[in-house]
């Protein structure tokens, strides 16, 4: 509990420092947020480690998985933001990570999680990394849309100066999607190789939606390479693919675990 509360507080401190930097036009030059953000990420991971050690296995149920995705998003934001490219993303990601960690802590842990062999654990970790990376890409897409919209309307808000130039942000978006697409591909491949029975394990709908999301992300990358897709087209494809992915994983886990009480 203490570790969780400290991590949540540090996430909020990092977010507050970033907001202050944006307001004072420090934007990409600000570095004060890095220490609390990195400490929060480390404590976030430690909270899961100690919870799993106490339970005797990895808890990957709904709120635990949600918290792990938040951890991945926060870690990726800290890594990308440390280079001065998109530190402002932490204004959104760090409070989300704090909320997800708090939800995991206060909704109760699974006391005796079902054991998973190394193959299914590998599949699960690929999935969580893919979701975290592509969720960050979706946030990049939203910021790209807001930036383009503000520039078209000649609304030069202060927060625009905290973002990279439009071309750089777009490049960062597609590189993040490419990494997430590779991780999602690994997720689907390990699922095909290691999952034994899609019907008995209630995985048909999850698989179908994940494949549709994979096709959408792949189509976007192909469109970028072949036709030079960008701007609003890229934003729409990214968000549509991410919605499919959220429904595939968290939508299905919500229904199965919280509504139908199945694991």
From TrEMBL:
Residues 45-258 form the Cytochrome c assembly protein domain. The chain crosses the membrane at residues 30-50, 62-80, 86-104, 125-146, 172-195, 207-225, 237-260. It comes from the Bacteria. Keywords: Membrane, Transmembrane, Transmembrane helix. GO terms for biological process: cytochrome complex assembly. GO terms for cellular component: plasma membrane. The keyword Cytoplasm does not apply. One of its GO terms (molecular function) is heme binding. InterPro entries: Cyt_c_assembly, YpjD/HemX. It holds the Pfam family Cytochrom_C_asm. This is Cytochrome C assembly family protein. The lineage of its organism: Bacteria, Pseudomonadati, Pseudomonadota, Gammaproteobacteria, Lysobacterales.
């Amino acid at each position: 509990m203490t570790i969780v509360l400290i991590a949540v507080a540090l996430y909020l401190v990092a977010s507050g420092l970033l907001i202050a930097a944006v307001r004072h036009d420090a934007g990409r030059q600000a570095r004060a947020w890095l220490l609390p953000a990195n400490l929060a990420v480390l404590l976030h991971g430690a909270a899961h480690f100690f919870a799993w050690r106490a339970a005797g296995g990895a808890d990957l149920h709904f709120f635990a998985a949600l918290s792990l995705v938040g951890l991945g998003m926060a870690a990726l934001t800290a890594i990308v933001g440390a280079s001065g490219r998109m530190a402002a993303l932490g204004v959104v990601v760090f409070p989300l990570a704090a909320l997800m960690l708090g939800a995991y802590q206060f909704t109760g842990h699974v006391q005796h999680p079902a054991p998973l062999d190394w193959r299914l654990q590998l599949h699960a970790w690929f999935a969580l990394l893919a979701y975290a990376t592509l969720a960050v890409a979706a946030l990049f897409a939203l910021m790209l849309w807001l930036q383009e919209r503000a520039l078209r309307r000649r609304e030069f808000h202060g927060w625009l100066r905290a973002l990279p130039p439009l071309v750089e942000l777009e490049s960062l978006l597609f590189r993040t999607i490419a990494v997430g697409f590779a991780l999602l591909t690994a997720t689907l491949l390990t699922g095909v190789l290691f999952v034994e029975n899609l019907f008995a394990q209630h995985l048909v709908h999850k698989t179908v939606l994940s494949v549709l999301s994979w096709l959408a992300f792949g189509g976007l990358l192909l469109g970028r390479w072949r036709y030079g897709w960008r701007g609003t087209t890229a934003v729409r494809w990214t968000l549509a693919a991410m919605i499919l992915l959220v429904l595939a994983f968290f939508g299905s886990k919500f229904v199965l675990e919280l509504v139908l009480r199945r694991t």
